[in-house]
Amino acid sequence: MTQQPRIPGSPGNTGDSGPQMEEPTTPAGPLPPAPDQSGPATVSPTGQETGTPQEKMAQGGEFLTTAHGARLKDSDHSLRAGPRGPALLQDHHFREKISHFDHERIPERVVHARGAGAHGVFRGYGTASRISRAGVFAQDKETEVFVRFSTVVGSRGSTDLARDTRGFATKFYTDEGTWDLVGNNIPVFFIQDAIKFPDVVHAVKPHPDREIPQAQSAHDTFWDFVSLHTEAQHHTMWNMADRGIPRSYRMMEGFGIHTFRLIAEDGSTVLVKFHWKPKLGVHSVTWEEAQLISGADPDFHRRDLADAIEAGAFPEWELGVQVFEDTEDQMFAGIDLLDPTKIVPEELVPVEPVGLMTLTKNTSNYFAETEQVAFNPNNLVPGIDVTNDPLLQGRLFSYLDTQITRLGGPNWNQLPINRPHADVNDMLRDGMHQTAVHAGVAPYRPNSLDGGNPFETPDGDRPFIDHPAPVAASVKERALPATFDDHFSQARLFFHSLSEVEKEHTAQAYTFELGKCYEQAVRERQLRALANIDPALCQAVADGLGMPAPKPSLDVPEVTPSPALSQVGRTWPLDGRQVGILVGPKVSTGEVAAAVAAVDRAGMVPLVVAPSGGEAATRLLGKDLMAQRTYLTARSIEFDAVLVASDTPPAPDAANGLDSKVGVPAGAGTVDPRVELLLGEVWRQAKAIGAFGAGEEVLRAAGYLDGAGVVSGSGGDDAVQQLLTLMPAHRVWERFPTTGRLAAT
Ligand code: HDE
Fold it and tell me: Which residue among 106, 108, 109 is best mutated to probe the pocket of ligand 1, counting the most ligand atoms within 8 A of its Cβ?
């Protein structure tokens, strides 16, 4: 059989020839990581370059050993008193192997348990150097980064496509210490004061009695909380909109949410909000897709990120800042900059780009890197400081605290992925899992026994200085400023900024989620909140639930929409997008090869879908073309566009008993029922569809040939060129049905 080239996502690094059929028996050392992979930098626990090659951090030698390096002869049988006798306590290898296995898991994160990480680099543009002394912003300064994207609610093994907020946490290993920008893909948060965090998390996590539902907000406790605690309405609106179901981590914005303070070389300060802008634009899947993905490929986002990096389609984001004067009241245009439930529209204060982040390497070990990475908003560097945002202030306690349990003690900073790339001389000593071997006798200050080391940093040597921001005379109390009281106008601002299609999706999401609640009081209370946000939205959701729509109870001010909040109306690059090419018995291999080449040239991934795989696919397509999917294994969700490249009559396994997706009796119709199903889904998902030759007949038979966003080409290359005119808009927006009920809002 001909050997296929390595394809993205294939496991391990056994080279182009793949693994041998027989179990290898000639002793050889461990294989290196795959070319797209990297591990943490090989610095010491105290941040100093060790010069150790990365592979020396991994397992070594040709032979199986104990954890202490003694070579072993047999790992398949435990030591027993004869072949039929009991196991012996003496069997160290058995006990070590099982005992270590018993302790392989660490507690998952309380929130953001499911994530995916990658290594990369951040390059400063120099544009922020006038407002911050942080070296990371200097022109052309390159800083290594590690990014972890995550969902918030679900457990570690939950689906990527839950309707949820996404974490967007970046660790910048700067020369001046590590800076962690621990943000989300939504610019506002559910609560204004950190003391409410356990409440919102308890409400959205599965119900404590049965521990269901997993990774979802569509249940009573969540809606109970957000309808009672109305400051959550703005964030919830973003979750119900398409932002809650991103197409890819590569296609999400990121936000620092809180207002931070930057300090310039001359000591002057500004307030800023951080934004990550993806080069590929902000895109979402449809709710139908999200549900299909959760069943068909729950690792969808994780796979997409890793495949893109492996294929060299490196994801990029520009970091930008909205800059505000550091005034005494910390307000801008009536918006309290310390209130994390508010945004400042980009139309009022534009986002100024300050640098570019490129993700270039996948992890080589998920546990060591993505699971053990520990972010901490306290990790700040000279020139970047916090403000008094009451949510941020609480986070400054939480992250350091949580790692002590999650990573088993106070030395989690010494885990390879968490090690700073700057010198560490901290006088922190001992504790569980201490891996530094500190020298000297005087981990205290002042001392004379270690020559006075470590010294306090004089101003000229760039110390981190807590900015001496004035604190207004006040009384000690449990209260928030009155400027935090408006809970509805920005939820309205967001909703009014959406296109009609996006508004419809949002109304459907509310209807779905509230429709999953059992308690009438909870639904009714949420409808009251919606009435204050937008009466037409409230009416649409109430109609969907079969309930009367309440009247607004508050006089919420009118708002000016922010067009930047909508995902519709612009065009974007297509790097790493996937195009399904459907083939059948009368396929022209030359034309399919031309289509594959055209997709490839456009920086996208062609996936040929054949009636069946293996030898049959080779007979159909020849040895130069490969079928990556079959009618059995393909599903609409992995394609951003579909090209029908030939006839697609029912394949031999188009029978209910062989593939339950078929849904009709064997041999019925002229088009394979799986192809029909796929085209129907792709049509509803408003993705571009193309055809050439006999493929046009397939589209005619399925009823889509003359529809919006359906193109025909004279051949494979031409058809792809036609698709390329549609795909940059992300969807064929006019294909989404609207009802007109939200058009005027
Ligand atoms: Fe977090 N958050 N958070 N959070 N958060 C955690 O820290 C917490 C908040 C965010 O990929 C935990 O290491 C409190 C806002 C991300 O490892 C924990 C409050 C924002 C991640 C924690 C917030 C975030 C976390 C769980 C209210 C956006 C994942 C494990 C004051 C700006 C980081 C851990 C990763 C993780 C606490 C609110 C983002 C428990 C108390 C607002 C991206 O410490």
Answer: 109
